[in-house]
């Protein structure tokens, strides 16, 4: 029987939400399958399960972000969870941040990550410690984690033995130059300190391993320890997994480990599709602990290099207790959701499309807050201020400037733009006087560089003249090889529109990376500008180094404003608040206009009207301007609509339920239902000619409560 009715009216974005709670409601059809990938763009996935939640992180390149979810797949899974930035590495080792991992050790959370200063040879492992008990909370930097050799290291992880002792595993170079990557292990005195020498566990010996061992991951079962590692080059289809086995617990003894002679997980193809370059997996269990899962990345297509996504599938165990991953399953095959996960209701009523752009702009047509399943959205990327579009990433991967996206799930699309860059290496510079060609320093750019002896007057000079195709502001950099015999006052003259200036660089230090000579200097199209190095430093027994000069288009350019997102027309409930927004490039100013009248004080990109009423109905537009131009947005029409509300509710002994909605005359409404206020299913669409909408819900079973909402369109 009917036991209780709970009614809540909440007017948000022209929507009314109400809850009808009773014992018997119509059953929602649900999906008990999923398809890979679970995350559309990502690499080096790591997951740890604790206290009923999964915590996930992956490579971002410049920081560490953690997702939290109660399950792995579905709309409530890791793919939909917010990636919270928890830690940004400190200078100077804050570049190329790779393969972070989250571990809970001795009552605290620790993040292990690899990073460098922009030079790959300086990659090392670092650790941060949690300040609070929340894995998504604050972390403090503990320092570099290294052994006595302090050599190149990435992909660090921790092995914790049953007695609590800790060991650090990582991928490292045997020497100080690139050429081979091995797996090493060392004992730890605490989660941030190695207290023993590194021990070589494995080095590439099989053809399928190439020259690389990386991404070591630990699995323990029945007293045996397994290290699953990634082999071969990660940017090729040959990337795969191998395994090391230890049965005696003597983990620091190389001879106690045996290595598989063949890969245990590799590229695979059948009639259902192909999977290329699977690797860098981590391991966890299903929600109820009944199944074992591998989460790994794979290439999006053959030969796509580091364009990868994240996938999950079950694995089993061989009779010798080693993991059996079988083959990576193609993305066309539906997989049963992991044991214990609640299937997500399907279909979802609306999907969101998150669109991002770096430097340039993107227009979406139609532009909406959300889209119905099957909607087709056209995205167009626009070059702006000299920035050139290079391609899309995210859930779309193409170099076409205009694309269509079919909304069959929540999606993200990022338009990438590149800045014009002109590199003048020393073979293309013009030299006067006596310069010597050298290849001695490894800090050089390209195959060689030139040097000249210093003196009190200009007897030698090197001029770097760019051929500028895109006029505008440029940042100017040089790179040189440092040394004790270098000049401490190397004079670089920068000549551009607006005059010249001289910058003095200490070439005794900070070699091997680009140093700034000038910022936001205006260069005309063509070859009128230049940068020149001379030898008139007044020093004796010193040299100046002429290697390379880079002219990089500045991010801050002077250009007229450009509107790439227009304010949207809306129907607004009387008494509610409404916001109009325009998005524009060009560091502009704003002025909103209502019915051809200037709105005093409305001078930002957003216009908010509180307590909306009929007097606020009409056309709104915004004038966007800067010193170089003026542009006006399209008109956005705001109209008043009656607050959408529930009028009456009746329950019949037959199991039918009826209620009446009251809304704006002539408005279209969509009725949706949900059991959890997150996943919504469309039930009915209606044109409310007279402002009243009669709704009948049929027999309902197996649901203790259900929420309903009606939105105007």
DSSP summary, beta strand count:
61
CATH topology of the largest domain: Tachylectin-2, Chain A
Give the C-level CATH assignment of the largest domain.
Mainly Beta
Mean pLDDT: 86
Could you give me the name of the CATH homologous superfamily of the largest domain?
Glycosyl hydrolase domain, family 43
Classify the secondary structure makeup into a structural class: mainly beta
Helix content: under 10%
Could you give the distance between the termini? 35 Å
User: What is the CATH architecture term of the largest domain?
Assistant: 5 Propeller
Domain module count = 5
Instruction: Point out poorly predicted stretches.
Output: 1-30
Which strand-content bin applies to the residues? over 45%
Radius of gyration, CA atoms, in whole angstroms:
31 Å
Largest sheet data? 6 strands, mixed
| Shape type | flat
Number of helices: 0
Description of the structure:
- This protein has 713 residues and is an all-beta fold.
- The protein has five domains: 15-30 and 642-712, S-adenosyl-L-methionine-dependent methyltransferases (Single Sheet), CATH 2.20.130; 32-333, 5 Propeller (Tachylectin-2, Chain A), CATH 2.115.10.20; 353-418; 422-553, Galactose-binding domain-like (Jelly Rolls), CATH 2.60.120; 562-641, Immunoglobulin-like, CATH 2.60.40.
- It is built from no helices and 61 strands.
- Strands 47, 50, 51, 53, 54 and 55 form a six-stranded mixed β-sheet that branches. Strands 12, 13, 14, 15 and 16 form a five-stranded antiparallel β-sheet that branches.
């Amino acid at each position: 029987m009917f036991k209780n009715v709970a009614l809540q009216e909440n007017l948000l974005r022209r929507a009314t939400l109400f809850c009808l709670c009773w014992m018997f409601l119509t059953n929602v059809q649900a999906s008990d399958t999923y398809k890979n990938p679970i995350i559309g763009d990502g690499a080096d996935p790591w997951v740890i399960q604790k206290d009923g939640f999964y915590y996930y992180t992956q490579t971002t390149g410049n920081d560490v972000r953690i997702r939290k979810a109660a399950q792995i797949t579905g709309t409530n899974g890791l793919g939909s969870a917010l990636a919270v930035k928890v830690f940004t590495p400190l200078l100077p080792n804050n570049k190329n941040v790779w393969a972070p991992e989250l571990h809970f050790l001795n009552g605290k959370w620790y993040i292990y990550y690899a990073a460098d200063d922009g030079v790959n040879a300086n990659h090392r492992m670092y650790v941060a410690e949690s300040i609070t008990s929340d894995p998504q909370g604050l972390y403090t930097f503990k320092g570099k984690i290294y052994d006595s050799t302090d050599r190149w290291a990435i992909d660090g992880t921790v092995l914790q033995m049953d007695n609590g002792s800790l060991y650090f595993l990582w991928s490292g170079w045997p020497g100080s130059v690139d050429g081979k990557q091995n797996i090493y292990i060392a004992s730890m005195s605490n989660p941030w300190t190695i207290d023993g020498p590194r021990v070589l566990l494995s080095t590439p010996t099989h053809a399928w391993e190439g020259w690389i061992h990386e991404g070591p991951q630990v699995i323990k079962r029945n007293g045996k320890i397994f290290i699953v590692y990634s082999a071969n080059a990660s940017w090729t289809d040959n990337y795969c997994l191998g395994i090391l086995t230890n049965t005696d617990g003597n983990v620091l003894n190389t001879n106690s480990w045996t290595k598989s002679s063949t890969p245990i997980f590799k590229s695979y193809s059948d009639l259902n599709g192909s999977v290329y370059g699977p690797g860098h997996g981590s391991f966890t269990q299903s929600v109820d602990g009944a199944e074992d899962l591998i989460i790994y990345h794979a290439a999006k297509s053959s030969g796509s290099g580091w364009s990868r996504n994240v996938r999950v599938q079950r694995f089993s165990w061989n009779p010798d207790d080693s993991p059996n991953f079988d083959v990576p399953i193609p993305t066309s095959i539906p997989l049963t959701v992991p044991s214990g996960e609640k299937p997500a209701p399907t279909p979802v009523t609306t999907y969101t499309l998150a669109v991002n752009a770096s430097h340039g702009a993107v227009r979406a047509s139609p532009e909406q807050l959300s889209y119905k399943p099957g909607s087709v959205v056209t995205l167009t990327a626009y070059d702006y201020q000299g920035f050139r579009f290079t391609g899309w990433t995210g859930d779309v991967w193409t170099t076409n400037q205009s694309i269509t996206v079919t909304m069959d799930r929540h999606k993200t699309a990022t338009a990438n733009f590149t800045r014009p860059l002109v590199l003048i290496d020393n073979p293309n510079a013009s030299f006067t006087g006596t310069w010597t060609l050298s290849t001695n320093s490894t800090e050089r750019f390209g195959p060689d560089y030139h040097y000249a002896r210093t003196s009190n007057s200009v007897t030698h000079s090197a001029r770097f003249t760019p051929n500028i195709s895109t006029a505008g502001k440029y940042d100017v950099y040089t790179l040189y090889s440092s040394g004790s015999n270098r000049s401490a006052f190397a004079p670089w003259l920068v000549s551009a529109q607006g005059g010249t200036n001289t910058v003095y660089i200490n070439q005794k230090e900070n070699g091997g990376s680009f140093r700034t000579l000038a910022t936001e200097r205006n260069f005309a199209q063509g070859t009128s500008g230049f940068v020149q190095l001379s030898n008139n430093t007044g020093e004796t027994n010193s040299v100046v180094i002429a290697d390379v000069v880079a002219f990089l288009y500045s991010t801050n350019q002077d250009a007229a404003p450009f509107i790439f997102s227009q304010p949207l027309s809306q129907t607004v409930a009387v008494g509610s608040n409404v916001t109009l927004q325009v998005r524009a490039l060009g560091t502009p100013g704003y002025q909103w206009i209502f019915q051809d009248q200037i709105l005093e004080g409305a001078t930002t990109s957003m216009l908010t009207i509180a307590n909306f009423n009929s007097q606020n109905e009409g056309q709104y537009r915004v004038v966007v301007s800067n010193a170089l131009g003026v542009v006006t947005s399209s008109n956005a029409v705001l109209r008043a609509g009656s607050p959408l509300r529930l009028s009456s509710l009746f329950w019949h002994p037959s199991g039918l339920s009826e209620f009446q909605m009251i809304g704006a005359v002539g408005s279209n409404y969509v009725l949706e239902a949900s059991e959890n206020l997150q996943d919504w299913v469309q039930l009915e669409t209606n044109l409310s000619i007279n402002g009243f909408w009669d709704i009948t819900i049929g027999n309902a079973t197996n649901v203790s409560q259900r929420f309903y909402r009606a939105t105007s369109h």
